[in-house]
Amino acid sequence: MTNEHAHQRVDAVASATVSRFYVTTPIYYVNAAPHIGHAYSTIVADALARWHRLLGEDVKFLTGTDEHGLKIAQAAEAKGLTPQAFADSIAPTFKTAWQRLNIANDDFIRTTEPRHRASVTTLLQACYDAGDIELDVYRGKYCVACEEYYTDDELDDGYCRIHKTPVDEYEEENYFFRLSRFEQRLLDWYDAHPSAIVPEFRGNEVRGFIKGGLRDFSISRTSIDWGIPIPWDTRHVTYVWFDALTNYLSAVGYGADDAQYRKWWPVDYHVIGKDIIRFHCVYWPAMLLSAGVEPPRGWAVGGWLLFGGEKISKTAGNIVNPLDLIDDIGVDGFRHYVLAETPYGADGDFTVEGLTARYNADLANNLGNLVSRVATVVGKKCGGVGPAPAADSALSQVAADAYAATAAAWATVQPSRALEATWSLIRATNAYLEQHEPWKAEPGPTLDRVLGDALEVLRIVAILASPSIPDAAQAVWERIGLTGRVEDQRLPSAATWGGYASGAAVIKGEPLFPRR
Ligand SMILES: [Zn+2]
Description:
Strand order of the largest sheet: 3-2-1-12-13-7
Oligomer: single chain
Structural class: alpha/beta
Strand content: 15-25%
Helix content: 40-55%
Number of strands: 16
Bound molecules: zinc ion
């Protein structure tokens, strides 16, 4: 993403009246309990949704679960359950995990819901009517865990590269989506929408896939029945891509509620991991173009959070349960680490040491220390009543610059850069206090100005940091004597210098972030 693109996005946001913002996570496959890989995408999407709510946009944030397919049928059988009963037992564990992580999704879709079946049927029929779905025979090597056929050069001596297990030979009659016809249409579409994929290098990767040639892909099976039937040939059920990807349309009423569909589609961002980029950025827009549906406006593609250098997944056997780490570091400490530590798009190394270090540096030392210093001196020298900031404060321009950089980074889905920009304001304010040493000053107008400036920074920081640390931001807000909810503040006006009014009761309280 170039700066030019970033500025276009920011300008688009600033000039709109009440615009809507639709963001999604992948739907998570219910063959495993929620793990840190799921939590990563979900926290990024949640923070992005919270930022756009602060901008005053009408936001829809969707997550959900993927519940069909052979793996689910097999897992259910192993437990002596029907596939539906098995899915019913796993889906709530995702809802519970997201509540625990303070995820404020507006909707949760399950692919076994009737609303989803209706949209999948509509999309399949539209692609079939366009002539892009045809019956053919497939022979090939198939990884059951991936639910994907592979060519020999995509395998390591006959073993799946992801699962490191041998693949099986399959031959069957399938319906195919004629992806091979969409090479030029996709390249043309991406040429017309050069900033649709962030970070930019992932967009280049997608062009590379397309230019390398596209193969038709199978969309149906007759050998399984745990899925949605092909509407014109019910011996077949569709599986994987038409079933999973279509959730993004089902949740906005595609094929069922035209007013909702027109309001929310196309989606603003699909937040995804790099392992599903081909399906989301090549298969999905081709399916939509075939059906006469506008492709997504954006995709935000994250790397993997590695744990000891391995992708964190059930198959790799190295699951870190996010809930276990939250108990130790707190919800906000966990969210903040995930968002701030790794530039979005790159792979990150998740370590318990890193989690603790980030918590201590950003939350305990920088933000926590600033809140505690200011509240202590206001308590001792101002009778606990917060003074107003100076209109001509040296921190006013620092705050304006921090806001601009924070907004520009969120506009291109770079949470780590956004938080770095917000924290630069906290660090500058701690340095400002060290320079002026209000704890040594006599009560009076000079002292009041310094403390008022610091309180004003805390007001702005509470708003800008709230997508990452929603509960702690609200706590800071209340400590400095403000009423109402941080999440109800509206940017950019709420970030304008001078919003902190004198006279509020500043509360010292227990440390917000005790050192770990
Ligand atoms: Zn595999």
